[in-house]
């Protein structure tokens, strides 16, 4: 009995050591350029770029398989930031992918019309919609990225994209066009 326990323990230790060595020796490094590109993208996971989310799009850009101008939610500012990061010429935003909204938007469910079909829940890439089958649904505003993917699947058109209303935490004084001035320059 004792020899069986010792044999199994030795086998487990040997297997663990072998797996530990293999994990260190054959470790796959992530692409640091893809990490930097991914940090620039808006993380809406909308798929308008033609990829399954921001990370696959970032990996395609880093591999040279996709252009930097395919992200409507990021707009031209994101294209410019990506061009600066990668040292390439900025391209105009690809209009075939959609338009950049003037103001940030979030989904809103008209709860009096919602039939609880759950199609919007299935379409939401960031799980920002709560509800149950045959029950009213609602959107978690702080989680919604405004990707618009929940609107089309809705059979009763109860989902609307509404502008994000600024509250005191998000509001700021606009800067003058020529930049901030010191109190001496203003006088």
From TrEMBL:
Taxonomic placement: Bacteria, Pseudomonadati, Pseudomonadota, Gammaproteobacteria, Chromatiales
Q: Which family does it belong to?
A: Belongs to the 4Fe4S bacterial-type ferredoxin family. RnfB subfamily.
Superkingdom in the source lineage: Bacteria
Q: Which SUPFAM superfamilies match?
A: 4Fe-4S ferredoxins
- Gene name, per UniProt, is rnfB
| EC number(s) per entry | 7.-.-.-
Q: Which GO terms describe its molecular function?
A: 4 iron, 4 sulfur cluster binding; electron transfer activity; metal ion binding
Tell me the segments the record calls region Hydrophobic: 1-23
* One of the protein's GO biological processes: electron transport chain
Please name the PANTHER family in this protein's record.
ION-TRANSLOCATING OXIDOREDUCTASE COMPLEX SUBUNIT B, OXIDOREDUCTASE
Any single GO CC term annotated in Swiss-Prot or TrEMBL for this entry: plasma membrane
Primary role:
Part of a membrane-bound complex that couples electron transfer with translocation of ions across the membrane.
The 4Fe-4S ferredoxin-type domain is annotated at: 105-134, 135-164
Compartments reported by the entry: Cell inner membrane
Q: What class of enzyme is it?
A: translocase
UniProt keyword list: 4Fe-4S, Cell inner membrane, Cell membrane, Electron transport, Iron, Iron-sulfur, Membrane, Metal-binding, Repeat, Translocase, Transport
Q: What is this protein called?
A: Ion-translocating oxidoreductase complex subunit B
Q: Which InterPro entries match?
A: 4Fe-4S_dom, 4Fe4S_Fe-S-bd, 4Fe4S_Fe_S_CS, Elect_transpt_cplx_RnfB/RsxB, RnfB/RsxB_Proteobac, RnfB_subfamily
On assembly, the entry states: The complex is composed of six subunits: RnfA, RnfB, RnfC, RnfD, RnfE and RnfG.
